[in-house]
Amino acid sequence: MSSDARRRDRQQDEARGALPQPEPGLTGAELIRRAASFRDRLRAEQDRSEARGCHSPELQEAFVRAGFYRALQPKRFGGYEFDYTTFYRAMLEIARGDPAVAWCVILGATHGAQIAAHWPEQAQIDLFGPDGHFIAPHRAAGPAGRCRRVDGGYVVEGTWNYASGVPYCTHFIGNVMVEGTAEQVVFIVPRASIAILDDWGGDATLGMRASGSNSVKISEAFVPEHWVVPMGRALWSADDVGSAGTYGTRLHGNPMYLGRMMGPYQASLIATVIGAARAALDEFEEIARARTTRFPPGLKWTEHVDVQRPFGQAMMLTDTAEAVLVQGCDMYMAYCRRWASDGTPFTAEDSLRLWGMLLNAGGLACDAVDLLFRAASSATAKKGQRIERYWRDCAMYRSHTSSQFANLASGLGRLHFGLPMGMYGI
Q1: Neighbouring-strand partners of residue 190
Q2: What percent of the chain has pLDDT over 90?
C-alpha cells in the first residue's frame, strides 16, 4: 500500500470521530455555491490528483464538511434529502474544476440514496451508522467474484475492477452471482473487508486518472442476509412497485426514494463530461484572449471567425447538454411525485427513456470538448495541458459501457414493443 493510501485510510478513521453534523438550514443554493468555490483549487491540483489517482485527503475532508456526501441521504440518517437536480447542479461545479475528481465524488456520494430506497430498515441503520457518514462505490457491471449462501447470509470473494469512488469509501457495493443459482444479487461490505489495489492513477489509463477507480479485492467476507438485495430491484428497478412503494418511500416518506436508478445512474456520469465541456470553454477563452493569429494582419484570436465559430458551437452544445441534465433530473423527481400523488407507475421504460435523454446530453458535451480540442492548436495537446486532459476524460466516458447509444436504443425499442429488453435482467 502506498504512503498516500495509508494516509487516506488513517485520516478516514480519524475523521469518523469528529465528523461535522448536518447543518440546520443548509440550502441547495448554498451547496451549489460551496461546490463552485472549489474550482480554482481543483484546477491547481489537477496534475497531483492525476498522479495520485484521486483528489487529496485535504480536499476530501473539505468535501465531507461541505456536505456533498450527505446531499441525497435521508434526514433520518444525517442527510439533507436534497433532490437530484440540486445535487447534480452542485456536482457540475466540481466537474468544472476537475471532471475526474467529480467522477470520484459523485460515484461515492450517490449510492446512499440507492441504499435508502431499496435496503430494509435494519440494513440502513447498520450502514449509515450513528454518524451518518456513508461513502460507497457500486461496481454494477459484471457480475464478478463468487458468492455462496451460508447460515444468516452469504460469503463473497473475488476482485471487482473500476470501483470509482473507492479511495475514501466507508463501504463497497458489488454485484455477484449466487453459486448454484441463476440469481444475481447486490451486496455491501464495510471498508475493512476490502483491499484497494494500486492500479489507478498516473499513466494507468488514458483519462479519468483522478477518478479513484481502483480495483477492489475481497477475501472470504461474510455479508448478513439483510445487506443483500436482488440486482433487479437495487439497480435497474425493473419491477413495478405498485402502491406499496419501496423500503425508502415507506421509511422516509419521500417519493424520491422510489429508487428508479437508471436516470440518476447516467446523470452521475454525464455531469462529469458536461463539467469538462464548461472547463474546456473556460480554458479556450483564456487561450483566445491571450493569442494573436500567426499571419498578417495579426488579429486577436477572439476577432477571428475560425476561433469564434468553434467556440460558439461548443457553447451551444454545452448549454443544451446542461439543460437536458437538469430537465432529466426534474423529470425523475416529477415521476416519483406523480407516483406518490395518484399511483401512476414509474416504469422501466420511463427510466430507460430518461437514460437515453441523458446519454444524448453526454454525447453533446463530448462533442463540445472535441471541437475545442481541435480548434485550440496542437500546443494544447501536450501532456498536462487542461484541454488535453478534458479531452482524455471525455474519451474515457465514451468508452464506458453505459454510454453506448446503439445498445440502449435497441433495448429500449424492444421494451416499448412489449418484448424483453434482453439486457440488465429486464
Answers
A1: 171
A2: 81
Q: How many Å apart are CA 12 and CA 112, to the nearest integer?
A: 18
Q: Angle at Cα 412 formed by Cα 234 and Cα 249, nearest 5°?
A: 30
Question: Does the domain formed by 256-416 have CATH 3.40.718.10?
Answer: no
- For residue 187, the cross-strand partners are 174
In the chain, the amino acid numbered 359 is L
- 3-state secondary structure (DSSP) of residue 45: coil
Residue 9 corresponds to which cell in the numbers above?
A: 485510510
How far apart CA 328 and CA 322 sit, in angstroms, is: 10
Q: Is 196 helix (H, G, I), strand (E, B) or coil?
A: strand
pLDDT exceeds 80 at position 135: yes
Per-residue model confidence (pLDDT) at position 142: 72
Looking at domain 3-128, which of 3.90.1170.50, 1.10.10.10, 1.10.540.10, 2.30.30.90 is its CATH number? Answer: 1.10.540.10
Mind listing the pLDDT tens digit for each residue in 180-216?
A: 999 999 999 999 999 999 999 999 999 999 999 999 9
Q: Distances from the Cα of 280 to the Cαs of 96, 178, 210, 385, 390, in angstroms?
A: 9, 45, 17, 11, 7
Calpha distance 127→112 (Å, rounded): 9
Name the segment(s) of the chain with CATH classification 1.10.540.10: 3-128
Average pLDDT of the chain to the nearest whole number: 92
Query: Higher-confidence residue: 383 or 158?
Result: 158
Neighbours of 220 (CB within 10 A): 9
CATH label, 138-230, candidates 2.40.110.10, 2.160.10.10, 1.20.210.10, 3.40.50.2300: 2.40.110.10
